[in-house]
Structures are given as C-alpha cells and as structure tokens.
Design goal:
Blueprint: H1 2-9, H2 14-37, H3 46-59, H4 65-74, H5 76-86, H6 98-113, E1 121-128, H7 134-147, E2 154-162, H8 165-173, E3 175-176, H9 186-192, E4 193-196, E5 199-202, H10 204-207, E6 210-214, E7 226-231, H11 240-253, E8 254-262, E9 276-280, E10 285-288
Parallel strand pairs: 1-2, 1-7, 2-6, 7-8
Antiparallel strand pairs: 3-5, 4-5, 8-10, 9-10
Helix pairs in contact: 1-2, 3-5, 4-5, 6-7
This protein binds S-adenosylmethionine.
C-alpha cells in the first residue's frame, strides 16, 4: 500500500508502479502463508512463485493480492491448491538415469568398501524433497542389487523427506502409474514390483528400507551422519541465499567423504569448492572433503 502511495505521488508510470505493487503484495501474501500455515516460501525464486500465484488468481478471477488473501481466508480448498501448485512434485524412477549408473557402479561400492569391518554397519542415505518416493525407492533397488544376499549384514537407513504430507502418503503406499517407470529398466519392474489393477506396487523388501517423514529444508534440522545425500530438482526453486543455507546444511549432514548428488540443472557455487570435490560433473555428484 505504501508503495502505491509513494508511486502516485512521484508520478511514476503505471507499469512501473504495478511492478512495485506486485512485489510488496507478493511479500505480504508469502508472509500470510507462513504465519497461517507454517509453509515458508519467502526464500524461493520470486519469478516462479509469482507466476504460480498469478495463475491461481486468474483461475479464480481475482485481480489483486489483497482480494486473493481474503479469498484464502474463506477457502481451505484454495489454500490446498495453492500449496500444491507451489510444490512441484514431478518425479519418476531413475529420473535422468546417468547419476544412478554412477551411484551403482562407483559410489555405492566406495561407500561399502570404506565401512569399518564390523557386523551390521549402518549405511545412511537421505533424499530431501523426495516427492512421491520414486527417488528413494530407486536408491533402495540399487542397494539391493549391489548388496544382493549380503543385505541382511547391513543396517540400511534411507530417509525420504518432503514438505508435502500428501506426497509422502503416496510414497508410503508405494503404488505407481505405469508413467512413473518411463526411465526404468523393465527387469527392475519385474523384480521389485507387483501389479495392482492397472498400477504397480513396490515390494516390501524395498519399501521397508525407506522411512518417510516431513522435513523442510527451510525450517527443520537436517538428518545427519550421512553416507549419501540426493537432493535433486529442489534447489532450483530456491533463491541464492536459501540455496547457500541448504548446501551448508548438507555439508554438515554428510560424513567426511560422504557423497552429495544434485539435479541436472543444479551446481555447487564457487564458495563451496573448498568443501566439496567434484566426482562426476555430468551426474552432478560431489564428495565432502576431509
Ligand atoms: C520436483 S520435486 C523433486 C523430486 C525428486 N527429488 C526428483 O528429482 O525427482 C521437488 C520436491 O521438493 C519439495 N520441496 C519444496 N520445498 C521444499 C522444502 N523447503 N523442503 C523440503 N522439500 C521441499 C516439493 O514438495 C517437491 O516434492
């Protein structure tokens, strides 16, 4: 509101004042979402957050942020739809494929070889922003492949976390449409899934390897003492400050020598080059130094 008054007093052009109004209105709306629901989108990239909110406003024939905030107070369903649009949950088994090849053939053998020689060694893996569970289950299938009959000799803990409870419920259920398998080898589907009507359910042997829970990369304590951390296609939605916070958290969450895997269009910024060494550029795999 203050911005509007200042702009008209300064006689600025209409288009400039509307951009300013957009930004202050957007910040007010993001504050409201945080204080009402505890979801903190304030450190996300403004362009994509604004685009998604504007789409919701257009669908509801609402022209101002003020009116949209009033509408949110009246409609629980609209709040839910807005949250769903702000949390993009696109994923699939073995998404982008190549990193999983490197994880299976290079990273997992290295993790296993470097464990102390004692029974029931723990292997700890975390997938923050796991959406509906395809990524942690892909890792579970790979580990089963690598360890084969030795699975029982390890204490395997794969953590799948997200801010969307609805996505996590689907992950726990582990039932998937055929479209989730577009990047997965048929032999994995035959070995690790069974049909349920027109869908497929992941077998208990893999399902029981993964624990799902709510965790926000903005607000909550990270999971610690990790051998491997996959955070793919989540940081792209964060602004630079929040990306830096997440990468700092990941650094402390990993064991020395632990591995970090980012998404195809995500890279480690230059200030983290002393903390991580690049293992495979194409696969976006890094190793914590030390
Ligand atoms: C595009 S999906 C990525 C899924 C999977 N990692 C992959 O690459 O296929 C992004 C996920 O990040 C989650 N997400 C968004 N903000 C988050 C936050 N602050 N903390 C944890 N997860 C978040 C969303 O709910 C969504 O499920």
């Amino acid at each position: 509101m203050l911005t509007l008054i200042k702009d008209s007093a300064d006689n600025k052009t209409a288009s400039f004042s509307s951009v300013d109004l957009d930004d202050s209105g957007l910040l007010l709306l993001l504050d409201k979402i945080f204080f009402d629901k505890g979801y903190d989108f304030r450190g996300y990239k403004k362009t994509s957050v604004r685009r998604r909110i504007k789409r919701r406003m257009q669908l509801n024939n609402i022209e101002t942020y003020e009116r949209y905030m009033e509408f949110l107070d009246l409609s629980h369903l609209e709040y839910q739809r807005l949250f769903d649009d702000l949390t993009i949950k696109v994923t699939s088994f073995f998404r982008d494929n190549h990193p999983f090849y490197v994880i299976k053939n290079r990273i997992m053998p290295d993790i296993i070889n470097n464990l102390p020689s004692q029974p029931f060694n723990e292997i700890r893996i975390w997938c923050p922003g796991c959406a509906t569970g395809e990524e942690p289950y892909s890792i579970g299938m790979l580990l089963s492949d690598v360890l084969k009959d030795n699975m029982g000799r390890f204490n395997i803990r794969i953590f799948g976390t997200d801010i969307s409870e609805a996505a996590l419920e689907n992950a726990r259920l582990g039932i998937y449409e055929p479209s989730a398998f577009k990047e997965m080898k048929e032999e994995y589907k035959n070995r690790y899934f069974f049909p349920v009507g027109s869908k497929y359910r992941i077998k208990y042997s893999v399902r029981q390897l993964v624990r799902y829970g709510i965790q926000s990369l903005v607000r909550h304590t990270p999971i610690s003492r990790l051998d491997l951390l996959l955070c793919r296609n989540v940081l792209i939605y964060f602004d630079r400050g929040l990306q830096e916070k997440a990468l700092r958290d990941f650094y402390y969450a990993l064991k020395p020598g632990g591995y970090l895997v980012l998404g195809k269009s995500e890279v480690i910024m230059s200030e983290f080059r002393d903390a991580f060494r690049e293992i495979d550029r194409e696969a976006r795999i890094y190793q914590k130094k030390g």
